[in-house]
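Hi all, long-time lurker, first post. I run a small reading group and we've been trying to get comfortable going from sequence to structure in the token notation. Rather than ask abstract questions, I figured I'd post a concrete chain and ask someone more experienced to write out its structure so we can walk through it together at our next meeting. Sequence below, copied exactly:
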Amino acid sequence: MNYGVIREHDLKKPIVKLIYDGVVLITVIIVLLCIAPVIWVLLSGFKDIREFTVGKNILPNAFDINRYFETWNRLHFVRYYKNSFFSVAGSVVSAVFFNGLLGYALSKIKPRGSKIIYGLIMWSLLIPATTSIVPLFININRIGLSGSFIPLWLSIGANAFYVIMFKNFFDVLPISLVEAAKIDGSTDFQIFRLIAIPLSKAIVMVIIMFSINAAWSDFLLPYLVLNNTGLETVMVRLFQFRTATKATDVDILRAVTFVMGPPIILFLIFQKQITQVTLHSGIKG
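-- Answer (accepted) --
Happy to help. Here is the structure in token form:
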């Protein structure tokens, strides 16, 4: 049996066995604490408002899936799912391309003033994101991008944290690969597209997962630029459902289930690939 870094004969020592069992127990407790709210939301969605308000049982009296369908039909969620998927797809492309391109330039091209630019990017991490939302919204309106997905895509394509992650990852790429490609006549963009990105699947996968989660769960910027345009994302629709309709607490919990479902399903489907790519991130010769 594989116990990871602990060898099997080490477990014969009482102190090692005690520590190992303690770590496993703590891990199980943490996992249960993390999934307990999700399970509670799912189970509460099967209850009616009286059972949810008055009842003391965690389990519903009946698992009536029609209650979820009723809330789904009231929300018209298919339309807002499409909007969110379109927003997420553009955000992923923008996050990988623009942040990766800047990270590569700072790492391998190193133009004049690159150290100053990198320092400013690092410094920008100290600025709370909410302080930039007002000037960002004003600029979006001035250049006429309000009411479209473009501001959402561009905002995630200029993420300081993603740039730093890309830059640090590209720093470990052998410079000999870049020099050899330049000798063969490749441009910097061709090297970035054909060499740097294919060799950086680990960081690309991480950025993709981060950007999917950020774009899907973002509320404030989509609410400011997409509200009442017909392009609202699921997070904006969830807020509207609460404020503009006579939705009960149970309706909100069912709607929350619809919102948190796709990211969870996506991770469960691709968790093996994500784990493998992240762990085996070394450059193979």
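A couple of things your group might point at:
The chain has two domains: 8-68, 69-279.
Residues 281-285 have pLDDT under 50 and may be disordered.
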